[in-house]
Design a protein that fits this description.
Length: about 550
C-alpha cells in the first residue's frame, strides 16, 4: 500500500519534507518508511493510511543523519539578565535559535524581565523591557527563517500584573508584521478575571476591567493578544513539584515547564467514520490507532535529541506526549451533523472521553513494560508519560492527511492557502465529494459554538486545546470581550479570537476575496485580474486562480 497523498500534499512534501540522505533526495516511499521508524505496524496502520501523522519536526528530521530535534514545542522562562549561563536573555536566544533552525516553535515567559526604563545597577544603564526582548527574538527568528525548515513560530506571554503590560498588549497594533513570528498572550489569573468581569458587568471602571477591554480592542485590530488562563493550566499540572506552567508553546496547546519540549501527533478522525453503521464512529479501529499512536510518540521521544542538556533533562524527566486530532469538521460533514449544534458537541465529548481513556490506559501499559516517567518515581502514579493529550492546530499536517484542521470548522468551502515557500494552494472541502450535506463554515457559525467545542475538548485533554475563535469582519470589540469571558467561564486554558480581515496578510483567503482584492497579499503591490486569476504586478511571483 502506498500513502494516498493529495496533489497539494505531494507539492508540500516534495518542497519541504523530503530529506537528502547519502547524497540524494529520498523518494515519497522512502519518506513514509523513515517516518514509520522502520516499524511495519506503524507504517501499515498509522502512516500509509493517513490515520495519524507526527508533528513537522519529526517528519523533517527523524532518522536523517545530522538532523535536528523531533519535537515541535518548546518553552523557555527568560530571567532578568543578559547572560546567566542558563536562562538569561542571550542564553535563551541561543537555545531558541537551535530549536527554530530545525523547525521547532518556541514559547517564552517574559514576566521576570524588569520593566522598560528600570535601572540596571551593573551597567548604570536602563532596562529595555519585555517588548524589546520580543523584537530581539523576532529579529533572530526572521534571520533563521531564511535558511531554516519553515517560518519561525514563537509565543510571548506576559502576566497582566507586569508594569509594561499596556505596551505589550498594543505592540502589534500599528504594524502586526513587525512581529510576524510572534503570537502574544496575556497571562490572566482567576482572581484577575473575577474582578474584571465584575467591573465589566456592572459598567464600572477598574484596572482589571479596563485592561481586558484594552486587550479586546487590540485583538479586534490585529488578532492579538490571546489569553492564557494560568490558574486553569496550573490546576492540571501533573508535576507541580517540578515548577509552574507559566507559559505555552506558540499556539497555546501545550503549557510547559521551563526548558520543556513536547512531541505532538494527530489522529485523523475523518478516517473513523463508520459509514452508515450503527455508530457514527468506528471505535474499535479508533482504539487500535490511539494505542499505536501513543506507542509511536513514546518511541519518537527515545529517538529524539535536543539542543542543550537542560532541555534533554526536562524532556526525559516528564516524557510528555501531545496526541491530538484533526478531521473533526470532516467527520461531522460525513455524518450530516452541523458544527453549531448540541449533537456535534455531544459527539465530540464522547470521542474525546474515549481517546482520553484509551491513551491513559496505554501509557500505564507502557509504564509497566518500559518504566514510568522519572517524575513519578516515588509516587503512586504509573504513567510513562506525564501528559498524553493536546489538540494542536495541525495546519500542514492536516493538509498532508487531506483533513480539516484540529477541531476547527471548515474555514470556507473553497479557499487559497499561501505557504511559507510562496506556494498558493487552491483548497476545498474534499469530503463534499462523499456527501450532499453542506457544512456551515467558520464565518457562518456564531463564536459561542467555537468556544463550546474548545471547552468540551478541554475537559478530556490534560494539556490544552489550540482553537481560533473566528469572527466575521463585522464583529465588535464587545464580541471579543464577551468571548474572552465565555472562554474563562467555560474552563478553557486560553484562546485566540480572530476577526476576519483584521490583518492585511492572511494565510487563508477566500476565492471571492482574491477576485476583489486590489493589492498583493504577499508584497502589497498592485495586481491584475484576468480570466479568473489574479497576479501580482510588482514581481514577487504571487498569483492565484479561482478555477
Amino acid at each position: 500500500m502506498t500513502a494516498a497523498f493529495s496533489e497539494n500534499a505531494l507539492r508540500i512534501i516534495e518542497t519541504r519534507y523530503l530529506a537528502h540522505i547519502n547524497g540524494r533526495r529520498e523518494t515519497i516511499d522512502e519518506f513514509v518508511d523513515r517516518v514509520s521508524l522502520g516499524n511495519e505496524v506503524y507504517k501499515r496502520e498509522l502512516i500509509e493510511p493517513l490515520n495519524f501523522l507526527p508533528n513537522s519536526p519529526t517528519l523533517f528530521n527523524v532518522d536523517v543523519p545530522g538532523g535536528g530535534t523531533l519535537s515541535a514545542c518548546f518553552k523557555f522562562s527568560v530571567t532578568d539578565s543578559m547572560l546567566d549561563g542558563n536562562d538569561g536573555i542571550m542564553d535563551t536566544a541561543t537555545k531558541a535559535s537551535m530549536v527554530i533552525k530545525w523547525g521547532g516553535g518556541v514559547g517564552y515567559y517574559l514576566g521576570d524581565i524588569r520593566p522598560k526604563g528600570a535601572v540596571v545597577n551593573s551597567t548604570h544603564g536602563k532596562a529595555m523591557g519585555p517588548v524589546a526582548v520580543l523584537k530581539f527574538y523576532h529579529a533572530m527568528a526572521s534571520m533563521l527563517t531564511q535558511s531554516g525548515k519553515r517560518e519561525a513560530a514563537q509565543m510571548g506571554i506576559l502576566p497582566a500584573t507586569h508594569p509594561d503590560i499596556a505596551e505589550f498588549i498594543t505592540c502589534k497594533d500599528l504594524d502586526p508584521q513587525s512581529l510576524s513570528t510572534f503570537n502574544i498572550s496575556v497571562s490572566l489569573s482567576d482572581a484577575f478575571m473575577e474582578k474584571a468581569i465584575a467591573a465589566i458587568r456592572s459598567g464600572e471602571s477598574s484596572p482589571e476591567g479596563d485592561l481586558l477591554r484594552s486587550m479586546a480592542k487590540s485583538a479586534w485590530r490585529t488578532g492579538d493578544p490571546g489569553v492564557f488562563f494560568v490558574d486553569a493550566a496550573e490546576h492540571d499540572n501533573p508535576t507541580p513539584w517540578a515548577g509552574k506552567l507559566d507559559g505555552t508553546n506558540p499556539c497555546g496547546e501545550v503549557p510547559l515547564l521551563n526548558n520543556e519540549p513536547c512531541n505532538l501527533g494527530s489522529i485523523n478522525l475523518r478516517k473513523f467514520y463508520a459509514n452508515g453503521k450503527s455508530s457514527i464512529v468506528d471505535y474499535s479501529q479508533l482504539e487500535r490507532v490511539v494505542r499505536l499512536a501513543v506507542n509511536y510518540l513514546d518511541d519518537v521521544l527515545d529517538h529524539n535529541h535536543f539542543p542543550v542538556s537542560a532541555v534533554s533533562e526536562a524532556a526525559f524527566y516528564t516524557r510528555k506526549l501531545g496526541l491530538g486530532v484533526c478531521g473533526w469538521a470532516d467527520l461531522l460533514a460525513l455524518a450530516g451533523i452541523r458544527y453549531d449544534s448540541v449533537e456535534a458537541v455531544k459527539l465530540l465529548e464522547q470521542i474525546m472521553a474515549f481517546i482520553r481513556r484509551v491513551a491513559d490506559e496505554q501509557s500505564i501499559i507502557l509504564g509497566a513494560e518500559k518504566g514510568i516517567a522519572p517524575c513519578f518515581v516515588g509516587t503512586d502514579i504509573q504513567y510513562r508519560n506525564a501528559t498524553r493529550l493536546c489538540i494542536a492546530p495541525t495546519g500542514t499536517i492536516a493538509i498532508l492527511m487531506d483533513a480539516s484542521s484540529g477541531i476547527e470548522p471548515h474555514y470556507l468551502r473553497e479557499w487559497t492557502r499561501t505557504t511559507n515557500e510562496g506556494m498558493v494552494l487552491h483548497e476545498r472541502i474534499s469530503v463534499l465529494d462523499q456527501t450532499d450535506f453542506e457544512p456551515p463554515t467558520a464565518m457562518e457559525i456564531s463564536w459561542n459554538w467555537h468556544v463550546n467545542h474548545q471547552a468540551t475538548a478541554q475537559k478530556y485533554v490534560d494539556l490544552a486545546v489550540s482553537k481560533t475563535i473566528n469572527m466575521p469582519n463585522a464583529a465588535t470589540e464587545q464580541d471579543i470581550l464577551d468571548a474572552y469571558i465565555y472562554m474563562w467561564e467555560s474552563g478553557c486554558k486560553g484562546g485566540t479570537v480572530y476577526r476576519d480581515g483584521c490583518r492585511d496578510v492572511q494565510v487563508l483567503t477566500s476565492i471571492t476575496q482574491i477576485e476583489n482584492t486590489d493589492k498583493c497579499p504577499e508584497c502589497s503591490g498592485p495586481v491584475k485580474h484576468e480570466e479568473q486569476c489574479t497576479e501580482c504586478l510588482a514581481g514577487c511571483g504571487w498569483s492565484a486562480c479561482s478555477v
